[in-house]
Design brief:
The chain has 156 residues and is mostly helical. The chain has a domain of 100 residues. It has a two-stranded antiparallel ribbon with strand order 1-2. Helix 2 packs across helix 3 and helix 3 runs antiparallel to helix 4.
């Protein structure tokens, strides 16, 4: 089965011009439209942190053209989680990591929420390829079949 194939824009392998063209053609066949990524979704307009993160990430990711309209939901979840993370982090900074309990202090619910936001951010980040190591794992379907160069020596 072998290793998963990387996209043309993320591969470090030396490719000939012919191989680059073949790969780009295959990648273009599975690409969808991107117009939904051109602007921040209407329902995210009231959340300044999520809106700014959406614009920042889409702008940066446009350079390698990995996403399309079907990625919008994962991107939206990421942006809302990012906004929530920043908000609860500010609350933790203001109120502390613990709250008074019946017998002793206990962990603030904000810390629990922060940890959940971190988990969501990391999951979405991995799916979207937001970290360099995640982008290196992204693949496209193996569409080309390699001709065995020794087939010409087989006598039937």
């Amino acid at each position: 089965m072998g290793r998963n194939r990387k996209t043309t824009s993320t591969t470090k392998k030396h490719l000939t011009k012919k191989e680059i063209n073949q790969r780009e053609n295959q990648e273009n066949k599975i690409k969808l439209d991107r117009e939904d990524l051109a602007k921040v979704p209407e329902w995210m307009q009231n959340d300044l942190l999520a809106r700014n993160e959406f614009a920042r990430v889409v702008d940066a990711a446009t350079k390698i053209n990995l996403w399309d309209n079907l990625d919008l939901s994962i991107l939206a979840i990421y942006c809302k989680a990012y906004s929530g993370y920043i908000t609860v982090t500010e609350l933790i900074d203001k109120n502390g990591y613990t709250v008074p309990g019946k017998e002793s202090e206990k962990i603030s619910p904000y810390v629990t929420a922060q940890n959940r936001y971190v988990e969501q951010i990391l999951k979405c980040s991995s799916k979207l390829g937001l970290a360099t190591t995640d982008r290196l794992k992204l693949i496209v379907p193996e569409g080309e079949s390699k001709e065995n160069k020794f087939n010409k020596y087989i006598v039937v």
